[in-house]
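Re: beginner question about structure tokens

> Can someone show what the tokenized structure looks like for a real chain? I only ever see the sequence side.

Sure, here's an example I had lying around. Input first:
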Amino acid sequence: MAPRTQTGSGRLSQGLLLLWALLGTALCHAGAEAEGFGQDTRTSPPVAVFNWTAQLVEETYTNITQKCWEVFVDLMRNVTASELCEWKVISRPYSLLQACLEGWADHLRYGYPNALAEQYIFQSHHRYFHNCTLEHQVYFDPPEDVLLAMIIAPICLIPFLVTLVIWRSKDGKAQP
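And the corresponding structure tokens:
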């Protein structure tokens, strides 16, 4: 593995913190009006209820996923071409992209997996991992006719064996 400059978790943490702050303030001031509190203030802390339309949620999620992608691309700039297929190197940026897409979808109640998140995952594979080959042989299902024969043969053999056992047990002679 070639030595590379240490990016440090400080830069990543600052970037994620900035992303969180920008997105957090955008969510709070996205034009949604608070209608009231969902629970009585005497029993638990108030929970604000927002009247978000599906279009606003989709637009917000689209903007957030773009930011998730930009953070992922920025993290992948630190990965050399020879390291693109090493899971130990790419697992953190890839997992952060997936967690960002899934976390914000859950937070916005948008549903995950969704077409937009899938598009970014496919884009990441196409852009960064398209030349990666598997080290292990990939096993595929056998052809349908072979699979059918492998399933039917034991099923047909069972009634024959049951008949044989019953026929031999009717003999009445003790077996030595």
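Each token stands for a local structural state, so reading them left to right follows the chain. The first helix runs from residue 8 to 28.
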